[in-house]
Amino acid sequence: MSTSKGINTICTHTGELEDKEYQGAVSPLYMSTSYVFEEVEVKRYPRYFNTPNQVALAKKMAALEHGEDALIFGSGMSAISNTLMAFLHSGDHVVFQDALYGGTTNLVTEEFHKFGIEYSFAKDSAVDSLEAEIKENTKLIYIESPSNPLMKLTDMEGVAKLAKKHGLVSMIDNTFASPVNQNPLDFGIDIVIHSATKYMGGHSDILAGTVISSSEYIDRVRQLAKNLGGNLSDYTVWLLERSLKTMGIRVKAQNENALELAKYLAAHDSISKVYYPGLKDHPEYELAKRQMKAFGGMMSFELKDTINASAFMKELNLIKPSMSLAGVESTILLPSKTSHGLLSPEEREKQGIKDGLLRFSVGIEDFEDLKEDLTQALEKFK
Ligand SMILES: *Cc1c(COP(=O)(O)O)cnc(C)c1O
Predict the structure, then answer these.
(1) Integer Cα distance of 129 and 189 in angstroms
(2) Can 139 be counted among the known catalytic residues?
(3) Pocket of ligand 1 (CB under 6 A)
(4) 199 C-alpha to center of ligand 1: Å?
């Protein structure tokens, strides 16, 4: 389907399967792992990514990110690892930006040496810093924007041009923005991946991933992925299609809540800093306006030094501590004790992650209730 349709129409309808027998309102679910061969070439099998529900959802994913084709995986990490491996051979080199999702960093630092794949982490996410790491054998540049947890942005158009100049494949983890707020292919990036566990699933009950690109690149990933075996079960594919129907309106509500809460926190005298790309004093606010449609539901903030962040978290009633993010419910965590807890204090300091930094995933609850929860907790430390 063309991408001329609006985001909510794509979310609701694109790719849906017709129920020819009963005219039901939603896509029928086909759980078969065995299909009669109609033509010998078309062997339908879940691990080949070609069952009816997988193909239907892939059409929706492709439309959401303005790509030609997509694959659905059993996790975000499965989408990331399969896609990287599809484009890298032993002896190749990859450039990664600095702040990456922890699981991606682990994949690179713990596994790549087994396959003879070389890599460099740029000193930050600036285009010049990425270029400085390019070598003779570099094949791919990998970025993430906004990044976790400090919401730093990477200039997607700049990276796409850099990759073209050096004949490299460019790839982005677009999980934090969601396809509602940012479409990297429009800026010339080659490949987009998402942890669909986050905004796409949106209800903290589905683990999934997806990759979206040109048909040529997706064929290449599919070729490898068939052998590695990381597809999502058709039942969960069907649930994810259901979740995506409301992604546009969920993320819109999260964007609106987050922007208002970021302004509220920035003005509060118990808060020393707020990291949110939609605030005018965010160092990349102009870039945010250029490449994002709205600024998302994720932010982080620092409390004044006199307030203990763990104690503050315990005073919150509505906003719950949680490792995951992007669900309809608001959650909060301390990166220094969780996602970045394994780093040395010096390494955390270098990355700008203070002990009192809180990462806040804003849900769809009413703004006034979220504000009230933060206010009453902050009051306790006056
Ligand atoms: C959660 C997450 C992943 C990994 O996804 P899983 O579904 O947990 O495998 C990758 N990137 C980002 C930015 C994430 O938040």
Answers:
(1) 18
(2) no
(3) 75-77, 101, 103, 148, 173, 175-176, 195, 197-198, 207, 209
(4) 11
- pLDDT tens, position by position, 199-208: 999 999 999 9
188: phi > 0 → left, psi -120 to 50 → alpha, else beta; which?
A: left
Does the annotation count 114 as an active-site position? no
Q: Give dist(CA 306, CA 329) in Å, integer.
A: 28
> What is the distance, to the nearest Å, from the Cα of residue 3 to the centroid of all Cα atoms in its chain?
21
The ligand 1 atom nearest the CA atom of 144: 13
Q: Give the tens place of pLDDT for each residue, 304-355.
A: 999 999 999 999 999 999 988 999 999 999 998 888 888 888 888 888 899 8
| DSSP-derived 3-state class of residue 356 | coil
Looking at 59, 198, 354, 359, which residue is catalytic? 198
pLDDT at 181 over 60: yes
Cα–Cα separations (whole angstroms), residue 287 to 137, 282, 293:
30, 10, 11
Cis peptide leading into residue 277 (ω within 30°): no
Bridge partners of residue 299, in order along the sequence: 360
Least Cα distance to 152 among 296, 256, 268, 264 occurs for 296
User: 178: which 2 tokens?
Assistant: 């969601």
What count of other Cβ atoms lies within 10 Å of the Cβ of residue 115? 13
Catalytic residue among 30, 101, 217, 276: 101
Handedness of CA 215, 220, 223, 225 (dihedral sign): negative
Of 32, 70, 90, 104, the C-alpha closest to 221 is 70
**Helix residue ranges, H only, 200-316:** 215-228, 234-244, 247-267, 285-291, 309-315
Residue 165 annotated among the catalytic residues of the structure: no
Write down the H helix ranges in the chain: 7-13, 52-64, 76-87, 102-111, 127-132, 156-166, 178-181, 215-228, 234-244, 247-267, 285-291, 309-315, 345-351, 367-379
Domains (ranges, CATH) in the chain? 7-244 (3.40.640.10), 247-379 (3.90.1150.10)
